[in-house]
Amino acid sequence: MQGMSSKTSASLSRAVILAARARCAMSEGASLEKALEAACRGAGAAERAAAQALLYGATRRHMLVQFILGRLVDRAPEAMVRFIVLVALSELIETPEKSYVICNEAVKAVKTVNPRAAGFANAIVRRFLRERETLLAAALRRDEVRLNAPSWWIAKLRADLGREEADAMLALAQQRPPLTVRVNRRRTTVGDWCAAAREAGLRTAPLGDFPGALTPEAVQVLDPVPVEALAGFGEGLVSVQDAGAQLAAHFLAPRAGERILDACAAPGGKTAHLLELADCRVTALEIDPVRTRRIHENLRRLGLQAEVFTADAGDAAQQPRWCREAFDAVLLDAPCTASGIVRRHPDVVFSRRPSDIASLALQQNQLLETLWPLVKFGGRLLYVVCSVFKEEGQAQIEAFLSRHPEAGLKALCAGGPEMATLAARQDDGVRTAASIAGIARVHDGFFYAMLCKRPLRH
Known about the structure:
CATH architecture of the largest domain: 3-Layer(aba) Sandwich
Structural class: alpha/beta
CATH topology of the largest domain: Rossmann fold
Mean pLDDT: 89
Oligomer: single chain
Helix content: 40-55%
Distance between the termini: 64 Å
Number of domains: 2
Shape: globular
CATH class of the largest domain: Alpha Beta
Low-confidence stretches: 1-10, 414-428, 432-440
Largest sheet: 9 strands, mixed
């Protein structure tokens, strides 16, 4: 990360402690986001930003720093001291030119939590600096370390994607993801918003200008800034949304007057995008009441309206609360392993277990079976997961079609005929491939499939 030299000594050592505290919580089962939120409760914005940068970096180099620490010590120190050292090792790997500052701040952080361990921590980081090249060379000979993932995850990706693409995706996951926004076409244009961003000192790259454009509203912001600092964010001119996720609304192609269900809607990005594209009526469901509030907040900021319910889309008994008649279209962004968005959620590869794939596939199947009866004849259901595992994508849809003769698979198109250059097609479904060279590197990995309901002939 790049915050080590730009903050005061006190704030740096504090950020290291916050990142180590979050990393400790993650080792006990907390997700990165929840661990960071808990660790930074009461911290200032600058401290939180610095801690977040440190934490993401340490997680993207988790296997590497664990390997190195194992070579430097015979017995691991107490948890907080260990995680402070791991955060420091991560920073020393990324920014060796700042080694003096990083070592000093790590030792100061250790003194804060356990003064007696300061000498021990100092010896570890100084030894790493002396043996850096030898340690890194030994570490990177191991696939798990080089690709920063457990062996089962690597094997699964290679089996589903092929070795070359799987390894490229895992390498990409160790880099910072691009900051991509969706311009609210009801309030401004891409050109006007980019001009406003430039006036605010931000460089932008409208993705619609590239050959094989993704979606016309997608713009990459080349200067990472806090979301609130984006030009017009508070006024609803833009929303942060990965370019691959922006495909959902264009694939579904909402039309004026249609009733559309967004079945797993939080935080509301796809709900809002549908409403930005057409004067449709959207019902948004979310099982988590805290995340339901996020949908309301996003809609208010964007000046949009939808019917929003806290409800389990997979529970048919709850349908009378929010379903009065069948829908023209259903968007099912189903819970999944998130194997396609690891660069945004680098803890995913360590929090998942092999059994999660099958259990999530069962949940996806239940959602499909529960929601399919709510689609009108002649209507459509867009199935999407932010996963590249076959059980959650292609195999899930093939099994559904085998059970439902009234269901057909419709070819997807968005962004013109060049879309084929950005996606690996699986029959008529589309798996966006974040690891393919070129423009596809700007978006994450998703699987999309459009199911259409047709009357059966007797």
